[in-house]
Fold ATP synthase complex subunit 8.
Amino acid sequence: MPQMAPISWLTLFIAFSLTLLIFNTMNYYSVLPKSPEISQKTISSDSMNWKW
């Protein structure tokens, strides 16, 4: 399709970029992070003994 005008390629690029940005933002904000109480775990010293 080399007969297409450059303004058409620019329009397609802008439309694709906006679609990509909107899709990525919707995916990023659709996931709720876990609460910090669940994600924090204390590491006991017994589990750190390496048996090599």
